[in-house]
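Friendly challenge for the regulars: who can give me the structure tokens for this chain first? No prize, just bragging rights.
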Amino acid sequence: MREEIFIKQRDLLTGKNTYYDMSDAKSVACIYGFIDWCIMLDKQFERVNVPDNMKYSIISHQDVPKECIKCHCESYEDGPLCMPCDLEVTANV
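First reply, four minutes later:
Bragging rights claimed.
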């Protein structure tokens, strides 16, 4: 069975997510090479003013991270908050 693997590109300014199918990649090095290539293109064509405006992550259909509703990080928690945000909210109650 073919494993579905995607690269998630998140624009932190607009909140837009773009997914690139990497299921046919020959190795993990190819996936990281693609991410490096995307970052190089972002800088070369000035798609981003600050390099930290774009975030890249690797996801699969088995372990798809969810986005925390408070800090917008990627989390594998069952609830809507990541562990640090959940602890912060619980401690402030």
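The chain has two helices and five strands. Strands lie at 5-11, 17-21, 54-60, 66-67, 74-75. Your move, everyone else.
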